Structure formats: C-alpha cells, structure tokens
Amino acid sequence: MHYAYVILIxxxxxxxxxxxLSFSCAGIYYTPVSQSLGVxxxxxxxxxxxxxxxxxxxxxxxxxxxxxxxxxxxxxxxSAVMGLDFLAMSLFREVWQFYIAGGVMGVTLAFxxxxxxxxxxxxxxxxxxxMMIGICSAASGIGGMLFNPLAGWIITEWGWxxxxxxxxxxxxxxxxxxxxxLLRDRPADKGLLPYGMDAAAAPQGDAPRSAPGARxxxxxxxxxxxxxxxxxxxxxxxxxxxxxxxxxxFIPGYVGAHGFSIEQASLTAALVMGGVTVGKLxxxxxxxRNTRLGVALTTGAGIAGLGVLLAGAGTFPLILGGAFLFxxxxxxxxxxxxxxxxxxxxQRDYSRIYSIISIALAAGGALASGGWGLLADAFGTPxxxxxxxxxxxxxxxxxxxxxxxx
Length: 406
Fold this sequence. Notes:
Growth Hormone, Chain: A; 2 domains; 406 residues
C-alpha cells in the first residue's frame, strides 16, 4: 500500500474528529452551557463568531508556515492545543472565558479545517486528487454523525463539563499522538513519488529519491497569482459558495412555515446532510475527470434544489428532493473550491494561495448567516432562495471563466 493512503487516514482523522468535535457538535452544547452560565444562547454563541474571525486572520500566516515548517508538527500541535482548549472549556464559569477559547480554537482550525486535507492530498496524490479530497471532506459530516449522539449521552448522564473534557482527551491523547507518529510532510520523506506519478513524469530524475519538491512543481507562483484577476475571481467564488451554503439554516423554518411538522422539518435537514455527504464523494470523482463538469454539477444541483424547494413548497416529497439537491451545492464549498483552485493555479504555491482564498470561505459564513436573516425578515424566505439561485449562477460563470483563462 502506498503511504499516501496513511496520509489520507490522517486527514480523515483531522476532519472527522477535530473538525467534527469543534464544528459539527458545537450546537448540542448551546442550551445546557448557556443555562448553566445564566446567559442567553445567542450571547454564548458569540464564541463561534470569534472562532470564524480568528481563523480568517490566521490563514495567511498558516499558509506561509505550511510552506516553511513541518506539516506533521503543525497539525499535531494544533490538535493538542485544541484538546487543551476543550479541557479548559470544561472548567469555565464565565461566558467571556469561552470567547477566549473560541479565539484559540479558531487559530487551530486555520490549520486543521481549511488547510489540512487540501494541502496534504495535493502533496501526496498525483491522480485521484478530487476523490481523495471528497473523502476527507465527507469525514467531517461522518464525525458529526458519530460524536453528536456520544456528546448528547455524556451531557445527559454527567453534564456538559464532562462532554468538553471527553472531547479534549480525544484530541490531546489520541489524535495528536497519531498525527505525530504517522504524518509525513512530503513523499520524498519516505523515498516515494506522489501516488499515481511514475518516475518518468517526475520533474527531475527517474527514481523515488528525486521526488519533486515544492519549487519544482508546475503552477503559478504566489506573487504572480495574487496580482491575477483569476485570484480575485476565485475569492468571490469561495465567498459566494460559502454564503449560499448557509441557506441550509433557513430550510427547516421554511418547511415548518408551510404547515409541516417539526419531525418533517428535521427529516428535511437530514436530507440536506445526506446530499452533502453523497455530493462530496461524487464531486471528488467527477473533478478528477472534468473540473468544468464539477463546477456545472455543484452549481446546477444547487440551483435545481432551491428551485424545487420554491416550486414544491406544498409537497413534502418534492421538498425532500430539493433539500437533497441543495446539499450538493453545500458539498461544493470544500470540494469544488479546493479543486478549482488547484486546476487554475497548479501545485507550486497551492498552500499559500488556498490559504488566502479560504479567508473568503470564513468571511462568507460569518457574514451571510446574518445577512440572509435580515433579507428574509425584510422580504421573506422565497426572496433569499432566489438570491441564492442568482449567486450560484454567478459562481458557475466565474468557475467556467477561470478554467478557460487558467
């Protein structure tokens, strides 16, 4: 077995455990923690906004660090710091302490969420890159499916403090040591070429010991990329895709407003997550063959999903179908943005370039989640869905134009 598959397991570990615990399981703590501290849920949830902000601020530096320092050290230390952060959260008694913890966690997520699997898969795989990115990205949803019931059981039996403490122990004593033991920065560290690259295709020589370094890989250098209009087009693509994905928050309320039960609204939300998981895997495989088709598929499915939700508002099977299709646009946030960046700018300075584009992902999530709410309050949810359709059309045009001019 090529060692690239061990790297893939490490990336799935970071996404499934670290990201799954910090993002996918965050909501289950809102009510018990806010009640224990005696503060409104919204006031407690500010720590998540702080986490987004610090991730955005950290990303440019994180991209540079990944180019110059050991990825194994950076990811293992980030996981250990996240574990210590969770342990500290289990002891907090004031809401401002959670705000500080959210800032620290945002720093770790700049590495573990935004840069981990795009960087490592790009380094270790020459072929099947899209499929591997899809697998890693899907791991975060699987982690949420596994750890949410665990956290709920711990909170019910022993309280939220033990829930945070358990999360901390998992990150600190299990994930961090495994990353330190198994991760390697580049194939050359193991005397290998990237998976799928034969010796004749390597930029230098014809033996594993001459595996390509970062400077020898094809692609646009960072200084030239940031002066290119394509770069700013990709920033807009990432911002819009992430912003449109937050429409997921409004789908259950939209379903309930049309007379369906809470259980039916919950089922609709589950279908969105099902579309996300399936979409990530399929989009990864499609992008390995044709990135243009991947762009068309993720935006087209999202447009169709929102359209079906609007047209079939009174028919529950249509609502479920629309929710599943919209999940594919949600999946494109991570898979399509990463693959489009790779195809447009190449491998040479991918980590630094993608770290800047990832700022738009964080900013899109932070701004759009509140912005859609204001738009819905003023004009209604159907207008927000139509705005999402317009945004996806813009993303389609940007993606196809960028691939033509790459």
